[in-house]
Amino acid sequence: xxxxxxxxxxxxxxxxxxxxxxxxxxxxxxxxxxxxxxxxxxxxxxxxxxxxxxxxxxxxxxxxxxxxxxxxxxxxxxxxxxxxxxxxxxxxxxxxxxxxxxxxxxxxxxxxxxxxxxxxxxxxxxxxxxxxxxxxxxxxxxxxxxxxxxxxxxxxxxxxxxxxxxxxxxxxxxxxxxxxxxxxxxxxxxxxxxxxxxxxxxxxxxxxxxxxxxxxxxxxxxxxxxxxxxxxxxxxxxxxxxxxxxxxxxxxxxxxxxxxxxxxxxxxxxxxxxxxxxxxxxxxxxxxxxxxxxxxxxxxxxxxxxxxxxxxxxxxxxxxxxxxxxxxxxxxxxxxxxxxxxxxxxxxxxxxxxxxxxxxxxxxxxxxxxxxxxxxxxxxxxxxxxxxxxxxxxxxxxxxxxxxxxxxxxxxxxxxxxxxxxxxxxxxxxxxxxxxxxxxxxxxxxxxxxxxxxxxxxxxxxxxxxxxxxxxxxxxxxxxxxxxxxxxxxxxxxxxxxxxxxxxxxxxxxxxxxxxxxxxxxxxxxxxxxxxxxxxxxxxxxxxxxxxxxxxxxxxxxxxxxxxxxxxxxxxxxxxxxxxxxxxxxxxxxxxxxxxxxxxxxxxxxxxxxxxxxxxxxxxxxxxxxxxxxxxxxxxxxxxxxxxxxxxxxxxxxxxxxxxxxxxxxxxxxxxxxxxxxxxxxxxxxxxxx
Length: 690
Fold this sequence. Notes:
Elements: H1 2-5, E1 9-13, H2 21-31, E2 37-41, E3 47-48, E4 51-54, E5 66-69, H3 73-85, E6 90-93, H4 107-117, E7 120-122, E8 128-131, E9 136-139, E10 149-156, H5 159-171, E11 177-182, H6 191-199, E12 206-211, H7 217-229, E13 234-238, H8 252-256, H9 259-269, E14 273-274, H10 278-290, E15 300-304, H11 307-319, H12 329-338, E16 349-350, H13 360-370, E17 377-382, H14 391-406, E18 410-414, H15 423-431, E19 436-438, H16 440-447, H17 449-458, H18 476-485, E20 494-496, H19 499-509, E21 513-518, E22 531-535, H20 538-554, E23 561-566, E24 572-581, E25 585-592, H21 597-600, E26 603-607, H22 612-621, H23 625-628, H24 639-655, E27 660-670, E28 677-679, E29 682-686
Parallel strand pairs: 1-2, 1-5, 2-4, 5-6, 6-7, 10-11, 10-12, 12-13, 13-14, 15-16, 15-17, 17-18, 18-19
Antiparallel strand pairs: 3-4, 8-9, 8-11, 20-23, 21-22, 21-23, 24-25, 24-27, 25-26, 27-28, 27-29
Helix pairs in contact: 3-4, 6-7, 10-16, 11-16, 12-13, 13-14, 14-15, 19-20, 22-24
């Protein structure tokens, strides 16, 4: 890794005296002032851009520790195998097309074999690597001429998306970077490997990644813990979260959560900040590069010279689930001394147009607000476009001075994401560690990650203590026994293979019952007429048994029997499920239950195991939570018992990891507070269907 990311001598294989990828890399190394040796490899030339060119890898000096491969895939494998034989252990592979096929042979296998032997390979199908601190710009792409050093390390599977963030942030907003890595197809090194390296690099304070998928999530969990211990926030954005790549299953759980949702839950468990979109990701990186991730403040004060702009930002705060801070009377009095024409101090604060002619108003106002006991985050709307006067720069200086004087988290944002930026304006803010964010929507969305990150860091990690045990079978009754033994509240049940057995069960329960068809592979029973409720007589039970088993047989389930359960009444129906993704492990889903769970898709998901607080947070997170919490005079459900069910289900999931693909508990009957909850239906898919 060190030879790849901090090389002492680089050879570019395929560089020439004509424009091309290899020549572009040599030019970038030259322009960035790389302090090590630069060589080209091409049998047609003796020099490229003034640097010595060797005919083959075998003739390179022994000092070369990193190759950049800018030739087609078949020749690339030959060159890399020669390099490995000579002791070169790092390579950036720009080309794509390393698939095994009949025409080219096992190219992918050859490349992977080198990686397995210990060669650090970036790519293939990538732009390469930028080490800002050393000028090692082994990169095929446009690189800003000025490369300010700073705390951010960015790795991206997509070279274009990475460059669209790296270039404008470093060029227009003067954001300092340590590294930018375009890692491509990750046939060798993966996102997790780069995060691992950055977590221990003292020059890196913020780690950012643009990911499509993860190769080694369990390693990410370990290295994210290292980054956390070193005080380095890790920020991810996941692209490609649509139907492609989703886990397609027959169960409710599979329809509600695929790879993208499980990955998001996994990243939360790792303490990784997740942007909801690309623009939000870019602004979150800019924010964390200047603001301490442990900075105080949960609520926000908006300061604006435009009533419309303030209203727009307030709307975005609501969408980001952030609150406007309530300022104390004392703070209001201090604000009125700065803005005497303002009778009632409200939040947002309209600083009025007077600030454009007297910048000290801005500084005095910010210091007044910063003195509030709530220590709010202050978001100031600015106009950073170049202007024919220095009014905006004076305002920037006032904002910067207030940030220095108060130690409060002050963030500047421009309402519009468009337009060129005044470089001096930006630098004035940055010297005081005041970030400049672009676009009201993306800027305010980024702000939500400050309190969320602190909350994640304060949350204790739940250890998986359950030893793994084998499930005897995945039948209803087998799952019923296993769940009951794990402390999951499930309704009493009897398997009836005949009409007479169903009547025996009815007599045993001595209460109205439900009958449900039961057969291997039968999941959605109500869809085929396989459920009868409130059977209150022997005649009704007998008729129900015949109906549900016959409907199941018509649907192709020849060995249908029936589950007989006593009717359970409650205030509401909830749903809980397990999805066990091989890469990430088991996760727990929760939502409002019943037949419309897939239609509503109002669910929360977290990785197992859960703490009681995790489970309660999941319950409160769904939009339908008020129905369980006693909205509009409804009785409150037994939320504590529901949370306990989720906790015990999560322990069951850990104990039986790898044995099921999905499991549904739907519905779960939620009774009034103090009376408990009980799951009345169970369905599972075995893991071997993958």
